[in-house]
Write a structure and sequence with these properties.
By secondary structure, the chain is an all-alpha fold. About 70% of the residues lie in helices and about 0% in strands. The protein has a single domain, classed as Arp2/3 complex 21 kDa subunit ARPC3 (Orthogonal Bundle).
């Protein structure tokens, strides 16, 4: 498989994850939306650490900053740190069973969410509810499906 085809496939998965992130949900379900783009980033950092790194994560984060209307760099910083941690431990985590990978994903999402919470606190927009942390729980729960779908996509397009 040539490099441009690999980049295209990875890019499409990021676009789909961005669409899932932006998809309208009922008011009661919004706090429980999984971090689709971060989960996709973690998957590609674990499986393609030479192709997807901190720079790509920073660019994705800047895109989210612009789309969400957040402080420029808020999501970029969180995405970059998440990518760094995923790449740092990729050789170990790839060998874990899915339920242990899900726990690792939860542990990676905690610093990501903490950075966002810190920045929101600086801006005076801190959340008033425990529901701020709900995406960590839902992301851990959907990680096995995200992993299996993205693995099927990468196997089908022969990325490995």
């Amino acid at each position: 498989m040539n490099n441009s085809s690999k980049i295209f496939t990875i890019g499409v998965t990021f676009v789909v994850a961005m669409m899932l992130m932006l998809m309208p949900l009922p008011e009661w379900a919004r706090p429980f939306r999984p971090e689709w783009l971060v989960l996709t980033l973690i998957y590609w950092c674990l499986t393609q650490p030479r192709n997807i790194g901190v720079g790509i994560a920073w660019i994705l984060g800047l895109c989210v900053d612009v789309v969400q209307g957040a402080l420029l760099g808020q999501y970029a910083l969180g995405f970059a740190i998440t990518a760094y941690i995923a790449i740092r431990f990729h050789q170990r985590v790839r060998n874990y069973p899915l339920h242990q990978q899900a726990m690792f994903v939860g542990m990676i999402l905690l610093p990501y969410m903490s950075i966002s919470l810190w920045i929101l606190g600086i801006l005076g927009e801190d959340p008033k509810s425990w529901l701020y942390w709900a995406p960590v729980i839902t992301s851990v729960l959907v990680w096995p499906w995200v992993f299996l779908v993205l693995r099927a996509v990468s196997n089908k397009s022969s990325i490995y």
